[in-house]
Amino acid sequence: MTEAIDPATAGDAGDSRGVDERNSVAAPGDGHMSVEDIRDAYAEYAGWVDRLGWLDRLLTGRYRRAQFGDARGRVLDVACGAGTNFRYLPASADVVGVDVSPEMLDNARAELDRLGRDGQVHEMNAQAMTFDDDAFDTVISSFSTCTFPDPVAALREMERVCAPEGRILLLEHGRSDVGPVARYQEWRADAHYEKAGCRLTQEPLSVVRRAGLPIETWEKAQFGRITAITATPR
Predict the structure, then answer these.
(1) How would you classify residue 101: left for phi > 0, otherwise alpha for psi between -120 and 50, otherwise beta?
(2) Which residue has the higher pLDDT, 58 or 166?
(3) In the structure, what pLDDT confidence band is assigned to residue 13 with cuts at 50, 70 and 90?
(4) pLDDT tens, residue by residue, 14-63
(5) 94, 120 in Cβ contact below 8 A?
(6) Is 165 a residue whose pLDDT tops 60?
(7) Are strands 74-78 and 136-142 parallel, antiparallel or unpaired?
(8) DSSP for the chain, written as a single string
């Protein structure tokens, strides 16, 4: 699985903190696309994702910096895509990225070169990673649970490879808290999923809770469309 690019992330409506107890909303197409389908979809998009990296940084860069800027130790970026998060990680971080798309990983390697930083990237299914238990101090992932065929399995894998005293840092998008925006997302949801394997109307907090990860903090932005979540292994 790879980071889903949602270009409609402009417009910050402020942040909120607390616990969202709403039940998960079933997403159109949920469970329909396989890992292979996702891989094929991103083979097509890898080129323009790389070319539009500047736009992604403009729209989401401050959220990535705020969420990942203090990641420490050996850091695993799950569904790293084109390596968009790499520039926001501390220089001291030992970076490892995984993604299901070979084409996106080519972009991620190029990003490491552009940044002049050491790091490794590997082709890997986030739902069945080959790393040892407790192998990383920090596990991060951005805009990705919406694309995993089984997001609960992927989150539990993140927990498995994270050290007991480590953190799991997520930056996700989902259904807006604002009625007109949410209705637009619902209208677009089926077509967007069929095209990119991305669930526009998922509820990130509900997904994390279904995986059983203890949530330390969460914060919403952009009309409730972006959610930053800090979780810990059990």
Answers:
(1) beta
(2) 166
(3) very low
(4) 333 333 333 333 343 344 777 777 776 665 665 556 666 667 778 899 99
(5) no
(6) yes
(7) parallel
(8) --PPP-S--------B-S---PPPPPPTTTTTS-HHHHHHHHHHHHHHHHHTHHHHHHHHHHHHHHHHTT--SEEEEET-TTTTTGGGS-TT-EEEEEES-HHHHHHHHHHHHHHT---EEEE--TTS--SPTT-EEEEEEES-TTT-SSHHHHHHHHHHHEEEEEEEEEEEE---SSHHHHHHHHHHHHHHHHHH---TT--HHHHHHHTTPPEEEEEEETTTTEEEEEE---
Please name the residues in contact with 180: beta carbons below 8 A apart, sequence gap of 6 or more: none
Residue 210's CB is within 10 A of a number of other CB atoms, namely: 15
- Please tell us whether the domain made up of 35-231 is placed in CATH 3.40.50.360: no
pLDDT in tens, 119-137: 999 999 999 999 999 999 9
**What are the residue boundaries of the structural domains of the chain, listed by start?**
35-231
